[in-house]
Design a protein that fits this description.
This protein is an alpha/beta fold. 45% of the residues lie in helices and 12% in strands. It folds into two domains: 226 residues, 3-Layer(aba) Sandwich (Rossmann fold); 103 residues, DNA polymerase, domain 1 (Orthogonal Bundle), CATH 1.10.150.170.
């Protein structure tokens, strides 16, 4: 698969707000789960100097290569991996990269993917219907378009695209098969919707739905958020930038749930869930780009930033994100202790774990 190199540089969205929400500090350790063009990562490394470390993850090998060239000046302060953030916990265990001071998810497509790529992410460019972030994935957008039964296709377009014309679009797609290019799919959608009189292009929601389905984005996000909380030290920050209501709803509900002790149904008289709050919500009101940023970077207009802070819980090892020893041996020992703690907690009884926890962490 060939890839056209980007025609313009990537502009990081809500850059200042992101750095503030992460509370980036010198010597801190951070994870950028969606490295993209490396704009946020570069700002984090600048702000965390001296001694800052960053683990950068991206499922897209092209984005990783471009970001790597941009970030090469930071040398041993960065570790870049071509992987999916759904594997966040195992990645950090493999590289002893825990606990951390902050974790960032910027969930939008980058300008690199929209403007300079031939995988079919944009309905404004002629390209094969691929839409895979990582070419090693098996299922492409063309596979879904050309093999899904009409009912499943309509459900996918409605669920992931919130497209009101999902049934008409699915019916027209089945009639027009095979469809293998972006321009062909756009014509089919326009025929199914009558061209559309809405503010956005009639193909926008269907292309969004296809991309989400191909890359399993929502399922991976829910899993990664849970893992992220476990990797944060007390006082560590979790920051997520989303670009459509489906993502933002998942993030909002996750943070609200993790900011509560009991999550039993309202009718439950006595708590039986045993849930304990692990987060404190920082952004009581969602953060959005300023008018100035939207004018400069129109693609930022739909961005929403939410942030939360890790709080102490009984199962959190006894470290504080603001007081870590950042020497390599100490960091390695923290990672080993954390991995051992997780293993013991999942294996032994609560009483046995409490004894072990006290001995290991000096509680």
């Amino acid at each position: 698969m060939g890839v056209i190199m980007p025609v313009r540089s990537h502009t990081p969205v809500l850059l200042g707000e992101t750095i503030n929400a992460l509370a980036v500090q010198p010597g801190g350790r951070y994870i950028d789960c969606t490295l993209g063009g490396g704009g946020h990562a570069a700002a984090i490394l600048e702000k965390s100097a001296p001694g800052g470390q960053l683990l950068g993850i991206d499922a897209d090998p092209v984005a990783l290569q471009i970001a790597g060239e941009r970030l090469t000046i930071y040398g041993s302060s960065i570790l870049l991996l071509n992987d999916n953030f759904v594997n966040l916990k195992s990645i950090c265990a493999r590289y002893d990269f825990a606990p951390v001071h902050g974790i960032l998810f910027d969930l939008g497509l980058s300008s690199l993917q929209l403007d300079g790529d031939e995988r079919g992410f944009s309905f404004q460019r002629e390209a094969p219907l691929d839409m895979r972030f990582n070419p090693s994935q098996e299922v492409t957008a063309a596979d879904i378009i050309n093999t899904y039964p009409e009912k499943e296709l309509a459900q996918m377009i409605w669920t992931y695209g919130e497209e009101h014309h999902s049934r008409q679009i699915a019916h027209r797609i089945v009639q027009e098969r095979p469809i293998n290019t972006t321009s062909h799919l756009v014509r089919v959608i326009q025929q199914a919707t009558g061209g559309g009189r809405e503010r956005i292009h009639p193909a926008t929601r269907t292309f969004q739905a296809l991309r989400i389905a191909v890359n399993q984005e929502l399922e991976h996000l829910e899993s990664a958020l849970k893992q992220a909380v476990e990797l944060l030290g007390a006082g560590g920050r979790l920051v997520i930038i989303s670009y459509h209501s489906l993502e933002d709803r998942i993030v909002k509900q996750f943070m609200q749930r993790e900011a509560k002790d009991c999550i039993c149904p309202p009718a439950t008289i006595t708590c039986v869930c045993g849930h304990r709050a692990s987060l404190r919500i920082i952004t009581k009101k969602v953060t959005v780009p300023s008018l100035t940023e939207v004018r400069t970077n129109p693609r930022s207009r739909s961005a929403k930033l939410r942030a939360a802070e890790r709080i102490m819980t009984p199962d959190l090892p006894h470290y504080h994100a603001g007081k870590l020893n950042h020497s390599p041996p100490a960091l390695r020992q923290y990672g080993q202790n954390l991995a051992l703690t997780v293993m013991v907690r999942e294996t032994f009884s609560p009483l046995q774990f409490n004894i072990f926890d006290t001995v290991l962490w000096g509680g």
